[in-house]
Amino acid sequence: MASDSRFTTVLRVITSTKEDEESTKLEEVPELKGGARLNKSIGLLSSVTIIVGSVIGSGIFVSPQGILAMTNSFGASIIVWIACGLFSLMGAYCYAELGTMMPRSGADYSYVYEAFGPFFGFIRLWIEVIVAQPVAAAIISMAFANYLLKPAFPACAESPPIAVRLLACVCVITVGFINCMSVRWSTRTQDIFTFAKVAALVMIIITGFVQIGRGRIEEFEDPFEGSNWDPGSLTVAFYNGLFAYSGWNCLNCMIEEMKNPRRDLPIAITVSCLIITVIYTMANVAYATVLTIPEILNSDAVAVSFAIRIYGPAWWIMPIFVAFSTFGGVNGTVMTTSRMFFVASQQNQMPKLLSFLQTSSLTPIPAIVFMCGITIIYVLIGEISSLMNYLGFVKWLAIGISVLIVIIFRFTRRTMERPVKVPIIFPLIFVAVTLFLVIFSFVGAPAEALIGLAMVFSGAVVYVIGKVWRHTPQSLRKIVHDVTVGSQKLLRLVPGI
Predict the structure, then answer these.
(1) Distances in whole angstroms, Cα of residue 420 to Cα of each of 82, 172, 232, 291
(2) Count of CB atoms situated within 10 Å of the CB of 271
(3) What pLDDT, in 10s, does the model give residues 31-75?
(4) CB-CB neighbours of 243 under 10 Å
(5) What is the domain partition of the chain in residue ranges?
(6) Which CATH number applies to 39-495?
(7) pLDDT band at 19 (very low <50, low <70, confident <90, very high)
(8) Which helix or strand (DSSP H or E) is residue 239 part of?
(9) Single pTM value for the model
């Protein structure tokens, strides 16, 4: 009864009209005075598993041939994998400086908003949370469905499309439910599935070492034989490798929920990037002990081909592990991206409802539901892989701008506290390489780059309309009000602060 009374008081406050706000106080509920905060429950281990779980998806199991096709030798491909890992670590350190300087959830959106203002902040938000991340989550969830169904349809090249989409929707809904219930639930889920995917890769790596012990070293007798050192091919290989490392900046989205971000963020970044680099490198070495270069290049799923060759009738265990890997990827994407919705709503650049927290779990349920809803729409649309190609140009442009802020703030905000301060050479190298990648993307695929820019422009149009259209129709305002109040009553929500 006391709990109901407490909630009624909070609900009355947060649904009061603007005229009543000055006279209405939250003093009756001291612990929620002014609203609720995100729960600080993420420790160092969970920080590491969030990054590792978000970065390691289906790519290392399915398509390492992207790099091998460009380098034409195992030796050169291994060098590219290591170089991509070190480059990602360099960028992650730059994000550690930004995150500890501005410890606000939202990551890139918060940094761009702070440095360049609300317009560019909204553009960054638009691309990331309306298209890029939901599309990525949709693709990963469909990969989850494909690989979970693969043992049930061993004779088919592809599982039935309807079954794939339905199971992908179930995956997204399950992840959304877990994230709504508790931050601890979502981080524990990430821990479990990260350990599962790492275990699968360790199994592959151990198998590779066993094969080496049996003398299967033909591909390493002259590992650089036939290597393609053409700069254009190496650039494409490097570009493909960097996409396999995508997600190293995800922890910044949840920095407000970290127990000790100043200490844990740089440690988690270092440990996770090194773990990922070692795992990726050793997994490719293991593949080389079993499969030849032509076999890898012609395989739709390298890990499955590896398992069929080595494990025989037990090959089906590998698609299951790949499914575990992708489930963790969906969880990591939903968990981190929903915080960008949350922060953008606090800045009045998204509907206010998305900045509300549930009173018991302190999770941003509206933001999570919104993220999952957009993802399911993309799942049902189906043919969405090309969207990621269109956004590759924009994605690297946006990341480069975020790291550029490190350099800008060194001159414009010299007195700002920096718990983590990276050598200036790190952001300089990162921005230079990123600029090269952006130019290369535009020159190599101008049509896709122009489509990506058109998506950016669509965000600018939405922003301008939102600014110009100040007199919202009364009917629309009533709908928004009714949805907001109804959601507050149904889910017991209070404003996040």
Answers:
(1) 24, 36, 36, 44
(2) 16
(3) 444 556 666 878 898 899 889 888 887 677 766 878 888 898 989
(4) 16
(5) 39-495
(6) 1.20.1740.10
(7) very low
(8) helix 231-244
(9) 0.79
